[in-house]
Amino acid sequence: MRRITHILFDFFGTLVEYSPSRTEQGYASSHALLRRLGATLTYEEFLDVWSGVSAEFDRLSDEDHHEFSMIDVGTAFLAQVLPRKPSLAEVEEFTSQYVSEWNSGVRYLPGLAGLIEELSADYRLAVVTNTHQPNLVPDHLAAMGLLSSFDAVITSVEVGWRKPHPKIFAGALDTLGVRASSAVFVGDTYEPDFEGPERAGMTAYLIDPHRLAAIPEDRRLTSVFDLPRRLHAQGV
Asked: CB 3.0-4.6 Å disulfide test: which of 82, 206, 207, 222 passes with 194?
């Protein structure tokens, strides 16, 4: 039986629950800032335009899995809604405020610290996540008191490619100094978190409580908390 030394985790939907919505969290402070910067949009207009600009970035990224940043989206958005060209400082202020409000949809999992402590006794841990903001996931891990438990946090925005692109997995393995055959990947979305890692040579486990994905049963998890039992049963 091959020796597994590393566990690589997706973040959103795996180590935290979250809402991917760009509108439902409530963005009153972002809208107020936008108005102070000179935009005349109503709140509903602001969300409609922001969603449209973001969706276009998503559409382009879906073509080849290149990643974009919040600064990219914020620059394009503010250029569209302000009567002048936005400064970088204005873009940074707006995107920071928006992300702060988006974070209200992120919920930490009770008991996760105990799980990470248990796993870190036997494995080296890392996070490989799609995100548009470099500090977002490390800041959450720090707030959870877990940042020091992970050898690395690899983000798509820093690599330039999002899962399932092979470059983000290759970059993660290189950063960790580990071969793909010695690592497993755990996530909750089929193509980025199962197909991508498997093509990269890792063994993937998918959080799929509703059994929607056509994957081997021994790789299907109800939640991340199933992982220690599954690894133990498989002798890895």
From this structure: 206
User: E-assigned strands of the chain?
Assistant: 6-9, 16-17, 107-108, 124-129, 152-155, 183-187, 203-207, 220-221
Buried (b) or exposed (e) across 111-134, using 16+ Cβ within 10 A? Answer: ebeebbeebbeebbbbbbbbbbbb
The answer to whether the predicted template modeling score (pTM) of the entire model surpasses 0.85 is: yes
Half-sphere exposure of 94 (CA within 13 A, CB side): 29
Q: Is 30 helix (H, G, I), strand (E, B) or coil?
A: helix
Alpha-carbon torsion (188, 192, 195, 196), positive or negative: negative
Q: Where are the domains of the chain?
A: 6-18+108-233, 28-105
pLDDT digits (tens, 9 = 90+) for 65-110: 999 999 999 999 999 999 999 999 999 999 999 999 999 999 999 9
Q: Which superfamily, per CATH, for 6-18+108-233?
A: HAD superfamily/HAD-like (3.40.50.1000)
Residue 64 CA, distance from chain mean position: 18
Q: Which residue has the tokens 């569209």?
A: 80
